[in-house]
Amino acid sequence: MSKRENKSRPVSETRKESAGKKKQYPMKKEGAKKQYPVKKEGAKSQAPKKPSVSKKSKPADGIRLNKYISNSGICSRREADTYIATGLVSVNGKIINEMGHRVKLEDEVRFDGRRINPEPMEYVLLNKPKGFATTTSESKGQTVMDLVSNATNSRITPIGRLGRNATGLLFFTNDDVLKEKLSKKGMERLFHVELDKNLKAGDLQKISEGILIAGKKVIIEEIKYVADAPKNEVGLRIKHMGNSVIRDIFDHLGYDVVRVDCVKIAHLTKKDLPRGRWKILSQEEVELFNMLR
Questions:
Q1: Distant-in-sequence, close-in-space partners of 6: CB < 8 Å, separation ≥ 6
Q2: How far apart are CA 219 and CA 117, in angstroms?
Q3: 227-236 confidence digits (pLDDT tens)
């Protein structure tokens, strides 16, 4: 056999052996659509996972200082970085120059010496019923914070206090500048006080002139008998912000306080505000606080 014949034989045999036996490629069935991975019912998407977020970026760990300043309305984030670098910003009394520093909402952040707040300013007036403590502590049972929980998302707190069984107006805000102003100068409040017995005219005079309690003189703006009511009911106007000062005054003179109701705070009254309800103050009502002396 020639070399040519010799070489052609294996090829022929190979072809015979492979006849009808084609190389197996993935073939699309007639009429079938191209097969893509099918998502099983209830299965999660197989899309590439997003890069995991570091714990530092979680809200619980605060927000970047430049965003905090920007949210307060002072300036843009880019400008805030410049102010931070120049030492105009402090956090909890410490000047911060670090870019990317994170702060929490409860931190005290000051810009050029003035405290700032990244939340919108909110002002809420509540007509408090009995049985609610004036505190932000959750361990005290029912509190006034439960009553205003739906008023705003901002972290408002009460200014001044009312005893658990006292009723009437209570003012809330997250405006730290106004809080500081009122804590220094006081906030005039008018109370309707009912005693266990008639208040003597001489004791009324003592209270109006200011009385010494535990060595400290308690100043009263005004005290009067309530018109067309028994002599055990008085109207008491006072700037003191504590919740026990009224009882201290009358205890000192030998009277028991039966009922205390705050009927007015500065220019704010209970008109159209039923017991247990709150309202957001108007811009005009808020601006009148700036006129307080």
A1: none
A2: 33
A3: 999 999 999 9
Q: Which residues of 148-176 are buried (b: 16+ CB within 10 A; e: fewer)?
A: beebbebebebbbbbbbebbbbbbbbbbe
Q: What pLDDT does 293 receive?
A: 60
Cβ atoms within 10 Å of 84's Cβ, excluding its own: 21
pLDDT for residue 41? 52
**Tens digit of each residue's pLDDT (9 = 90 or more) over 193-229:** 999 999 999 999 999 999 888 888 889 999 999 999 9
pTM: 0.67
pLDDT digit string, tens, across residues 168-189? 999 999 888 888 888 888 889 9
How many other CB atoms are found less than 10 A from the CB of residue 178? 19
CATH number of 123-185+272-291: 3.30.70.580
The whole-angstrom distance between residue 240's C-alpha and the CA centroid of its chain comes to 26
- Long-range contacts formed by 172-178: CB under 8 A, 24+ apart: 172/122, 172/123, 172/124, 172/125, 172/126, 172/144, 172/148, 173/121, 173/122, 173/123, 173/124, 174/117, 174/119, 174/121, 174/122, 175/117, 175/121, 175/122, 175/123, 176/115, 176/117, 177/114, 177/115, 178/289
Q: Which CATH class is domain 58-115?
A: alpha beta
CATH number for the region 189-265 comes to 3.30.2350.10
DSSP 8-state assignment for residue 133: B
What residue segments make up the domains of the chain, in order of their start?
58-115, 123-185+272-291, 189-265
Task: State how far the Cα of 191 lies from the Cα of 69, in Å rounded to an integer.
Answer: 40
Give the 3-state secondary structure of residue 186: coil
For the chain, report the end-to-end CA distance as a whole number of angstroms. Answer: 126
Residues of the chain whose pLDDT is less than 70? 1-60, 243, 293
Give the C-alpha separation, 7 to 118, whole Å: 89
